[in-house]
């Protein structure tokens, strides 16, 4: 782990050359949206996602997993309560 420094790379936005590229881009964007929703990601707005011909690129992602640990903890608590309820009913 490098605690002294980090790194960054410039990502330039680009247009999509044709309809096939647009379909691929929006398919990748939908996948990103699904993963972001599952992780409870926050702060993914137009300034933090760059549109490129290769697909959406997330930049400035320090808040992406901010809520994920709290959500995971909440889901574990819900699962434990559900298990308790099932045990009580059976």
Order of helices and strands: HEEH
Going by helix content, strand content and strand pairing, the class is mainly alpha
| Count of individual beta strands | 2
Q: What overall geometry do the principal axes of the alpha carbons give?
A: elongated
Largest sheet: 2 strands, antiparallel
Strand arrangement in the largest pleated sheet: 1-2
Structure characterization notes:
With 90 residues, this protein is mainly α. Helices cover 48% and strands 9% of the residues. The chain contains two helices and two strands. The chain has helices at 19-39, 68-89; strands at residues 49-52, 55-58. It has a two-stranded antiparallel sheet with strand order 1-2. A hairpin with a 2-residue loop joins strand 1 and strand 2. The longest helix has 22 residues, at 68-89. The radius of gyration is 19 Å and the shape is elongated.
In short:
The protein has 90 residues and is mainly alpha-helical. It is built from two helices and two strands, in the order αββα.
Main attributes of the structure:
mainly alpha, 9% strand, 90 residues, two-stranded antiparallel sheet
């Amino acid at each position: 782990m490098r605690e002294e420094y980090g790194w960054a790379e410039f990502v330039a936005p680009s247009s999509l050359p044709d309809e096939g590229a647009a379909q691929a881009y929006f398919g990748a964007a939908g996948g990103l949206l699904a993963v972001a929703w599952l992780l409870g990601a926050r702060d993914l707005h137009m300034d933090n996602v760059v549109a490129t011909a290769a697909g959406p690129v997330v930049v400035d992602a320090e808040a992406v997993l901010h809520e994920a640990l709290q959500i995971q903890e909440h889901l574990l608590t819900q699962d434990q309560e559900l298990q308790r309820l099932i045990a009580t009913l059976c």
